[in-house]
Specification:
CATH class of the domain at 3-67 and 94-114 in chain B: Alpha Beta
Shape of chain A: globular
Radius of gyration of chain B: 14 Å
Order of helices and strands of chain B: HHEEEEHHEHH
CATH superfamily of chain A: Alpha/Beta hydrolase fold, catalytic domain
CATH topology of the domain at 3-67 and 94-114 in chain B: Nonspecific Lipid-transfer Protein, Chain A
Oligomer: heterodimer
Strand content of chain A: 15-25%
Number of strands of chain A: 8
Strand content of chain B: 25-35%
Largest interface: A-B, 21 and 19 residues
CATH superfamily of the domain at 3-67 and 94-114 in chain B: SCP2 sterol-binding domain
Helix content of chain A: 25-40%
Shape of chain B: globular
Distance between the termini of chain A: 47 Å
Number of domains of chain A: 1
CATH architecture of chain A: 3-Layer(aba) Sandwich
Largest sheet of chain A: 8 strands, mixed
Structural class of chain A: alpha/beta
Structural class of chain B: alpha+beta
Strand order of the largest sheet of chain B: 3-2-1-4-5
């Protein structure tokens, strides 16, 4: 029997957030510069499984990811049964900064994908001094809604199936089948209405396009990586965003889509490693 | 690639037929100027028939230009041509009719349409 125990450690964090007790699941591996990773809408921290297992990264970085409340192994707060879940810019920003403080992540690098790629721009705007830099994957200040999101949560359509179906095509055709279907499985496991609630932030409430010019990349450098097959945050969307942020560094990634770190980790790391190398270089002065 | 091969591609794929086991509808697929009625029965395709007369009923229709379908059916389609919803998002495809059965079986129907793609032979 050939057994491998991965170096990833998962634990639960009890913390107060927006005046209510929460139980948040997080995973980490490695040591060094804190690298806090944010999952996409309707998914969870398993999207970063390959990064957390990447010895070349964990040699120099303490890689941490957490499941947002309502996602993965983080429960919704007590009383959730009487609420409609809706992510907002303020709530999301507050959540990330609270988790970073709770885990004593000192001036972390924050990397987020999709909704995470949006919020890291807000973090760069609002909390530059508290961060080393941000890395936006599939990052944009605004996206145009292209479908009626009420399909994602109604009793005559299976929520897990339809959420997976609405994101399956966001991945590149050459991404390995096993990684693509793993990514879809996370979507199929999302709670009812959670993906839709995240998209409220992504497509309605969280438009920060007009405020992007205020980001000071000298105080908080902004790296952006966008997969060419993404039609939700398309390369054009990221280009329009980068054009408004003086000093932002955008790379369009070949053979990747909306979920680079989970749909094709091997291809993604060829783009991420040079960014992390840059972060290290900056650190050494 | 031609829509007439759809029955063979789908019915020979056991996992795909199982995925569509609750899907029994008539779907109109438009390829340019040609329209086809595809009759699904419990995940299998019973018939694919070109529409040659008026007054035909269907549950929903999927319409796109022939060139769009040909690009969609390439072994490794270009970005924006690689997925049904990508075609929709860029205005290259139209969906009409009762969309609930489509949305409730969307993974299945995407895979059905993608089944006409040939595998990539070499890079």
């Amino acid at each position: 029997m050939n057994v491998t125990v991965e170096p990833i450690v998962g634990r639960y964090l009890r913390m107060e957030f927006q005046g209510r007790p929460h139980r948040i699941y997080f995973e980490e591996a490695g040591q060094g510069i804190p690298l806090l990773c944010l999952h996409t809408a309707g998914a969870d921290g398993r999207q970063y499984r390959a990064l957390l297992n990447d010895a070349e990264v964990t040699r120099n970085f303490r890689v941490v990811t957490f499941d947002m409340p309502w996602h993965g192994k983080s429960s919704p707060p007590a009383g959730w049964e009487n609420e409609e879940y809706r992510l907002t810019t303020d709530g999301y920003t507050d959540l990330i900064m609270t988790v970073a403080r709770a885990l004593a992540l000192e001036r972390p690098v924050v990397m987020g994908c999709s909704i995470g790629g949006r919020i890291v721009l807000q973090l760069a705007l609002q909390h530059a001094a508290a961060l080393r830099c941000v890395i936006g994957l599939q990052s944009s200040g605004r996206v145009n809604p292209y479908y009626d999101i009420s399909w994602l949560y109604r009793p005559d359509v299976h929520g897990g199936d339809v959420c997976a179906a609405m994101v399956s095509g966001l991945m590149a055709p050459r991404s390995p089948a096993a990684e693509r279907w793993e990514t879809l499985w996370h979507y199929m496991q999302g709670g009812p209405g959670v993906f839709k609630g995240d998209l409220h932030f992504y497509t309605v409430e969280g438009d920060i396009q007009e405020r992007l010019a205020k980001i000071d990349t000298k105080r908080c450098p902004v790296y952006m990586l966008t997969g060419e097959y993404d039609y939700s945050c398309s390369p054009d969307d990221s280009q329009a965003t980068a054009a408004r942020i003086s000093g932002a560094q955008l790379t369009i990634m070949k053979d990747l889509g909306h979920f680079p770190m989970t749909e094709n980790p091997a291809q993604f790391r060829t783009y991420l490693l040079p960014v992390l190398e840059d972060v290290l270089k900056r650190e050494r002065g | 690639m031609s829509i007439e091969q759809l029955a063979e591609r789908v019915n020979s794929n056991e996992a795909l037929v199982r995925r569509g086991r609750y899907f029994s509808e008539t779907v109109m697929i438009e390829v340019g100027t040609a329209q086809y009625l595809v009759r699904f029965e419990s995940g299998r395709i019973a018939t694919v028939a070109r529409v040659r007369t008026n007054l035909q009923s269907w549950t929903f229709a999927i319409r796109a230009a022939e060139e769009v379908w040909q690009r969609f059916w390439e072994p490794v389609p270009a970005p924006g041509y690689h997925d049904l919803i990508a075609l929709l998002r860029y205005g290259r495809l139209r969906l009409e009719g009762n969309l609930q059965p489509l949305m409730a079986n969307l993974i299945y129907l995407k895979l059905v349409l993608e089944s006409l793609r040939d595998r990539e032979t070499s890079r």
